[in-house]
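pasting for ref
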Amino acid sequence: MKLTMCHLYPELLNLYGDTGNVLALFKRCQWRNIQLDVIEHHMGDKVDFKDVDMFFVGAGAASEQSIAVHDMKNIKANLKDAVEQGKVLLAICGGYQLLGQYYQGKGGTADGLGLFDFYTEPADSHFVGNIVVKTEDYYLVGFENHIGKTYLNGLKPLGQVISGFGNNGEDKTEGVRYKNAIGTYLHGPLLPKNPKLCDEIIAIALKNKYNIANLEELDDSLEIKAREHILKSMGQK
């Protein structure tokens, strides 16, 4: 079996070690004898997503975000079609903000890609630290470091904040989820800390392409110990 991932703008949106998300997906596919080809989409590249099964966009500073979003407008229609078809999209922090209508910073307001109807405004201080989020099926752990407050306008969040700040520090929501597209402030990176989410992404892509529903189980004992340590340190276990 073979899957293809498109890593969007790795030369710009690459903060917080989030390339580790790509590596986690690659290794967890490799351990199951699934070939994962990772292609990169850079500024000015021709749009060709017809064989892409999943997309990843990482975090970036405001200056890099403004550059990336200008070029992303050229891929908006193709990316939207992929999302509506149920393809997987994972966007982290600044990459998450880019998917909304607009985001505000110290330099003013910048248009987002407008892929989803949410927006981001500046916070008075940084939201930083470890975070625990409860989704419908499991807990996520991660690290957040953002100064934006994101409001979902009724969209479904990725989960509810148990400890930490989340989207805006007010409504206890974290991230956004639409079909198989996920935006989140959790990084550090996210997927090595959360193998269930990593496997869910792989499983969705396999079901889309091969109609295969189940994944071979892996030994996640080290990941589980790391998660237990994080949860315990935050008073959750």
